[in-house]
Amino acid sequence: MKGQIITVALILLGHTFLTPAVQAIGFDYYNDHGVMSYGKGYWGDKKIIAQFPKMNRADLRLVTNISGERELVEGYIPTDEISIKNEEYHWVTDGRVILWRGKIVSNPPGTPTVDIASFQAMGRFAVDKYSLYFDGQRTESNSGASRVDLATLKA
What we know:
The chain is of the alpha+beta class. It is 14% helix and 33% strand. This is DKNYY family protein.
């Protein structure tokens, strides 16, 4: 009996050290019954965060990267991911709107609309010809002293 308790204790202790404390949580865009959704988790554990009835997952593509990097596979959208060591999100578009973390990026009233054609991103930062963005929010105008020199960023 004592030997069995020690064996079970060693198994549990080993499992504790071999299993990461926090695993990554994935967020993806997917079509479900004709509606594009952004959700957390997989299969039975899936939780819908946002739905976009007029959009199709097949139309999404990554926003142009400021660094000039291209998609490795056309139409492939990496999973947005949160772990204890990393947060990774991707700016995506269907050519009509920009999405960040399952939300449509839009500018406040009285500011120019998001310019899809000139929109470029690098990590959590993005820029179009009118605005600067961080974490999906417009932070300021892309003019005057705050104007971003994209050529310098690419170097």
